[in-house]
Specification:
Oligomer: single chain
Distance between the termini: 75 Å
Order of helices and strands: HEHHEEEEHHEHHHEEHH
Radius of gyration: 40 Å
CATH architecture: Up-down Bundle
Number of helices: 10
Largest sheet: 4 strands, antiparallel
Number of domains: 1
Strand order of the largest sheet: 2-5-7-8
Mean pLDDT: 83
CATH topology: Outer membrane efflux proteins (OEP)
CATH superfamily: Outer membrane efflux proteins (OEP)
Structural class: alpha+beta
């Protein structure tokens, strides 16, 4: 009875300790491609800065609009002359202490202020476009890294499979040597192939870890955070959907770079108008109400209501304003030239990216067929080797060819995905 109770207590303690140990370990972060993209967008610091820039541009726009609105200021003053009296030819006048209050409402109107408000609106729109472009870039980078990790994992799986097959053939060859049915040199050739396969696996593992670290960086995770990708390469890789991207119409206005350039052209045009308004008059209107109270006898010469209207007209600026207008016109023309050049460049880029995608697809098809053929050749030579009809050199060559073709195949997959991502970014449909 005593031993059973003690065993029960030990079991409970061990269960609690195990539970505490497991609770201290963070669970792996399981992410689909869409979840990884959303997480990167939410936590990316560059995108956060872009969002802040949008808010800054919005605040600047309101500042420009506020300059067109009436401005109201209030002031209060207290004066104490310490009993001083002014002498006017034998007549003494006391200057008592006083308190005054004033309220001023003013407004200044000019074409430059109106254009500044329009320019601030363009700046806000450019900030919005930049934020959307940054979000697109982050999502594309995560997609590329996600596919790269899946491709690297598939490469690693293929290498492990090749290692198992070559190891099996090496063990078979060594057994044949032990019973005197084969020469040691044949086993040694396969042993070298086994070592080569292990080295390739180690290099692939290092590359895979680098890709995971890049993904952690994009997701703003700790270096030790464990990530599990829930989408498989077979689920994500849609060749037909990738090729369908080429059938989408290329609308320049959807491209973020083109949108920003058009806003730059609009901004340059507004700068020309802004400099032209420097030659126009500025009208200012101000109304002031004042109230004064003397603490004692004294004269109050302050009018309670005043209104001021001022018109300022530039007459001569030593051609400074004229040269500013000329400079703004030339900058505007430069932006027009850049826009026209970019239109042509984007059309050429679209054709090139379509060609890249077509070429990547053709390479993918060829490499897929090559892997199937080389796998059949390898299996055939392996069977012959076990039956004594092929040499170790043939076996080694077949293994090397298979590994090379498999590596080219997974690389072709990645090239196809990258070409698809680049074309999708350009189209932005």
């Amino acid at each position: 009875m005593f031993f059973s109770v003690r065993s029960y207590i030990v079991a409970v303690v061990l269960s609690i300790a195990t539970a505490l140990q497991l609770s201290g370990q963070e669970a792996p972060l399981r992410l689909s491609l869409e979840e990884a993209q959303q997480m990167a967008i939410e936590r990316n610091l560059t995108l956060q800065n872009a969002s802040i820039d949008v808010k800054i541009a919005k605040a600047n726009r309101w500042q420009a609009l506020a300059s067109l609105m009436p401005q109201v200021n209030a002031s209060g003053t207290y004066n104490d002359m310490f009993g001083y009296r002014m002498d006017f030819g034998g007549m003494s006048i006391a200057l008592p202490s006083s308190a005054s209050m004033g309220v001023t409402a003013s407004v200044a109107l000019s074409g430059a202020q109106v254009l500044n408000a329009a320019i601030s609106k363009i700046s806000k729109q450019m900030s919005d476009i930049t934020a959307q472009q940054t979000e697109q870039t982050v999502a594309s980078q995560v997609k590329t890294l996600y596919y790269s990790v899946l491709v690297a994992e598939q490469t690693l799986a293929l290498l492990h499979n090749n290692l198992d097959e070559v190891q099996h053939l090496y063990d078979f060859s060594q057994q044949s040597v032990n019973v005197g049915a084969s020469e040691q040199v044949s086993a040694d050739q396969l042993m070298v192939q086994v070592a080569t396969a292990k080295t390739a696996i180690k290099n692939s593992e290092n590359s895979l870890e680098m890709l995971y670290n890049s993904l952690r960086l994009q997701l703003d995770l700790d270096p030790d955070a464990e990530i599990v990708l829930t989408d498989t390469l077979e689920q994500l890789l849609d060749i037909d959907a990738g090729l369908a991207v080429m059938n989408q119409q290329f609308n320049l206005d959807n491209n973020y770079n083109y949108q920003l350039l058009k806003k730059n052209v609009e901004l340059a045009r507004q700068q020309v108008s802004l400099n032209r308004w420097s030659l126009a008059p500025t009208v200012s209107l101000a109304y002031q109400f004042s109230a004064k109270h003397n603490f004692g006898e004294g004269m109050d010469m302050t009018p309670p209501n005043t209104m001021n209207v001022m018109v300022s007209v530039p007459i001569f600026s030593s051609l400074s304003n004229t040269k500013k207008i000329q400079s703004a016109k030339m900058s505007y023309q430069k932006q027009l030239n850049t826009l026209a050049e970019t239109e042509n460049s984007l059309q050429i880029q679209y054709r090139q990216l379509c060609y890249n995608l077509q070429n990547a697809h053709a390479k993918y098809v060829d490499q897929k067929q090559a892997v199937e053929v080389n796998k059949r050749v390898f299996d055939n030579i392996a069977r012959k080797y076990e039956q004594g009809y092929s040499s170790a050199l043939e076996m080694t060559n077949a293994s090397t060819t298979l590994i090379t073709s498999q590596s080219s195949y997974v690389q072709a997959i990645l090239e196809f995905v990258n070409a698809q991502v680049e074309l999708e970014k350009l189209l932005n449909n």
